[in-house]
Amino acid sequence: MAVMSSEIAAFLDKPLVGQDVLIHGAKPATKPEAHNLVFVKRYTPELLSALNTAGEVLVLAVPDYEGQLAVPHIITPKPRLDFAKVLQQFFASSRRGGLAGTAVIAPSAHLGDNVSVGHFSVIGEGVQIGDNTEIRNYVVVGDNCVIGRNCLVKSNTVIGEKGFGFEFDQDSTPIGIPHLGGVVIGDEVEIGALNTVVRGTLEDTVVSDHVKTDDHVHIAHNVFIDRNTVITACAEISGSVRIGKNVWIGPNASIINSIDIGDNVLVGIGAVVIKSVESDVVVAGNPAKILRKRFEK
């Protein structure tokens, strides 16, 4: 798709400075090319020079570049955010509804409008999937799970299987505990590839609106994850953990069962969290400790 710079400026509700040029793609700021969109969030003389010799690009730039760019540009305090919005609006591939011929959909499952289910995916009995949600290939959604609108579930993910729960008899033989709950996933959620989201033991495992999980994430039974939380690659969330709003969980982090993570917490790379964490802090290490407030005044 090609779009004029003026259309991008109007979409962002910000003024376009310079010539109105045709944009048909995006490039990194370190390798700008004519008729492409780039963003820069840090000022350096080297970047300024490269951009000013790139020809008919469109630059989304922080205010430090104001008055110095000789090419078409839009000044914005958050160029990366606006870059993402523009790509979503004009250049991202649109999701197309449709069921692959190899997909298995239970008769009692309810799929909303424009839902896509990929090859060899299995949708269980009583499953509900909201409008415009995309289920990619080799995904399993267990019985009676709920997935909201405008979600993406990437390939090879399993949602709603039995969790890992046992009690031991007098001979120390593990006796499995049936998991009778489900999984409820909100709207605008992205679940990465090779994720496992386990059904609850008696109540549901809940992943709230706008949560994003990277690839290779495990979410155990009875977990509750609040809005806007991001969980990155290979993180493991143990059973009955409650995670607040706007939390960032770093790669390879592990969170022990039955603790609470407050709002706006950042959990560092490889952290092992063994006790509850208050809101608005950064934790890291093994065992994880509070390093500082996340947002200083």
Give a short overview.
With 297 residues, the chain is mainly beta.
List the helices and strands and how they pair.
Elements: E1 3-4, H1 5-12, E2 22-23, E3 37-40, H2 45-52, E4 58-61, E5 73-75, H3 79-91, E6 98-99, E7 104-105, E8 110-111, E9 116-117, E10 122-123, E11 128-129, E12 134-135, E13 140-141, E14 146-147, E15 152-153, E16 158-159, E17 166-168, E18 174-176, E19 183-185, E20 190-191, E21 196-197, E22 205-207, E23 212-213, E24 218-219, E25 224-225, E26 230-231, E27 236-237, E28 242-243, E29 248-249, E30 254-255, E31 260-261, E32 266-267, E33 272-273, E34 281-284, E35 289-293
Parallel strand pairs: 3-4, 4-5, 6-9, 7-10, 8-11, 9-12, 10-13, 11-14, 12-15, 13-16, 14-19, 15-20, 16-21, 19-22, 21-24, 22-25, 23-26, 24-27, 25-28, 26-29, 27-30, 28-31, 29-32, 30-33, 32-34
Antiparallel strand pairs: 1-2, 17-18, 34-35
